[in-house]
Every structure is written in structure tokens, then in C-alpha cells.
Design a protein that fits this description.
Elements: E1 2-8, H1 15-31, E2 36-38, H2 50-53, H3 64-76, E3 79-88, E4 94-101, E5 107-112, E6 118-120, E7 126-128, E8 141-144, E9 147-151, H4 160-168, E10 173-175, H5 182-200, E11 203-206, E12 210-212, E13 218-220, E14 224-226, E15 232-235, E16 242-248, H6 251-259, H7 262-265
Parallel strand pairs: 1-2, 2-3, 9-10, 10-11
Antiparallel strand pairs: 1-16, 3-4, 4-5, 6-7, 8-9, 11-14, 12-13, 14-15
Helix pairs in contact: 1-3
Length: 271
């Protein structure tokens, strides 16, 4: 068994305030016996006013949020999967970037969100992530206390080829940190999370943003842990931020893959 912590968060427009929430959660996770903590997409900053937020999108080596969580992880002796922090790339574009931090505070892995959230919803909400962010191009897997961890972010959830690649790479756990809108969350969140866990025969850990944010948006919450059979073993609800703990039994992965070896049975399709 591997004990993990999942942070459900309501990030705001002040990176230092968000960093304080993150470092507090890292300490609480370690005190609660977790070996690793998972946090949501945009843990470091949520600000839909890109002109205002631009001052807080800085390179990795100048990010106060990244520095704070690295120090906190080292101090607590715990791994942290920071769902994402907006980072200024060398070419001047932004990256929506996951960081996996080891228990010594070193960056063990980075993942840039591949699929950009460019949508127009019936509710009137319109989002153009690609107007500010450059998409990533690399599938990323890292060995950590939960085993082989595959990294994705939010809208990536809707693209099963990525999860098939992670499943075929024998990932034990897939992280899907998110800031889902309430309309899309109510319609699709649970069914998609369960489907991805089943397809990859892996645990899914989906730390989520929740509630009303300082920039005016509202997010769905319902941070989830789903087992390889598709059973929901944690649902943190859609109302409040908080920290929860789950035991991941890696024997469950082997059990499911032995019963339903879909990754082995897959055949190429010819057209």
C-alpha cells in the first residue's frame, strides 16, 4: 500500500497566497503519513485576466511557487505532483506545466499540457488557452513512490490516445490535475475519469480546483481517485477545498490486468 494525499484547492490571483496553501498542504500530507501529494491544475495561479496575470508568469528559476513547494517537500520529506504552474518559456510563450518534486526538493519530472482548451460552451463561456499557452509535445512518465506515474493535465482527459500510450507504457498511476468548468464537469467529469482508468488499467488521481475564484470563474471540484476497475475510491465533492488521503494498492493493478488484459489483447486497426 502507498498512502497519498489529494489537495482540492481554490487558487486565486496571488501566487504567494497560493504557495502558502500548497506548502501548508505538503506539511499536512506528510504529518498524515502520505508519501506523495497531488495538487490541481493551476495550483500556482488562476487569473483569466491575462494582462494582469502576465506579471506572475515567470521562468522556472524565478517562480516563487515552485521554490516554495520544493523547499516544503524537502523539509517534509515527501514527494509532490504539483498539478501545474504557468511558466514563461525561453521563447516568450507560456507553458501549463506539471512539476513532480522528489523528497529532496529536486524536480524529478516536468510535463507541459499537450491539448489546449479552446472551446465555446452553450453557457456563454469561451476559452482560448492557445492564445497564451504553447502546447507540449512529449509524453512523460516518472518513477516515484506510487510506481510508474503518467502525467496529463485537465483537457488531455478527452484524448484517449494519450492514455492508451500511458497504459501501454505500464503506468501504475495517471495524474489528471484539473480546473474543470462546472458545466463540463457535471456532464463529463466522472465518466471520463472512470473510462481512462479502465482503458489504462491503472489508478487515476485527479486533483481538482473547486468553487468560485477571485478572477470570476467557477470550477467543478470533485477531486477523484479511481481504481483500475473503474471504481471511485475518493470523491471530494464540489463545494469545498480540502485535503484527503487514500491508500493505493498496487496489487489491484496486477489483479485487474490479469482478469482483463486489454492492453495485451489490443490489435492494430487496418483501414
Amino acid at each position: 500500500m502507498t498512502r497519498i494525499a489529494v489537495l482540492q484547492m481554490t487558487s486565486g490571483i496571488d501566487p504567494l497566497a497560493n504557495a502558502e496553501t500548497l506548502t501548508g498542504a505538503i506539511g499536512a500530507a506528510a504529518m498524515g503519513g502520505a508519501e506523495m501529494i497531488f495538487t490541481p491544475e493551476m495550483s500556482g495561479l488562476i487569473d483569466r485576466d491575462r494582462a494582469r496575470g502576465a506579471a506572475n508568469v515567470v521562468p522556472e528559476d524565478r517562480s516563487p511557487v515552485l521554490a516554495a513547494v520544493r523547499e516544503a517537500a524537502a523539509g517534509a520529506g515527501i514527494w509532490a505532483a504539483i498539478g501545474s504552474i504557468p511558466i514563461l518559456r525561453d521563447d516568450g510563450l507560456w507553458a501549463n506545466r506539471t512539476f513532480v518534486i522528489d523528497s529532496n526538493g529536486a524536480v524529478a519530472a516536468r510535463y507541459d499540457k499537450i491539448h489546449m482548451f479552446d472551446v465555446d460552451l452553450d453557457t456563454g463561456e469561451s476559452w482560448r488557452e492557445s492564445a497564451a499557452y504553447a502546447p507540449g509535445e512529449q509524453v512523460v512518465i516518472v518513477d516515484c513512490p506510487v510506481g510508474r506515474l503518467g502525467l496529463t493535465i485537465c483537457y488531455d482527459l478527452r484524448f484517449p490516445a494519450l492514455f492508451e500510450a500511458l497504459g501501454r507504457a505500464h503506468c501504475d498511476v495517471i495524474a489528471i490535475p484539473a480546473a474543470f468548468t462546472r458545466p463540463t464537469g457535471a456532464a463529463h467529469w466522472h465518466v471520463l475519469q472512470r473510462a481512462r482508468a479502465i482503458e489504462a488499467s491503472a489508478f487515476v488521481v485527479a486533483a481538482a480546483q473547486v468553487g468560485c475564484h477571485q478572477d470570476g470563474r467557477e470550477t467543478y471540484g470533485h477531486s477523484l481517485v479511481v481504481d483500475p476497475w473503474g471504481d471511485v475510491v475518493l470523491d471530494m465533492g464540489g463545494e469545498e477545498a480540502g485535503l484527503a488521503f487514500v491508500e493505493l494498492d498496487r496489487a489491484r493493478i496486477a489483479q485487474v490486468r490479469a482478469q482483463l488484459p486489454s492492453l495485451v489483447n489490443k490489435r492494430p486497426l487496418r483501414q
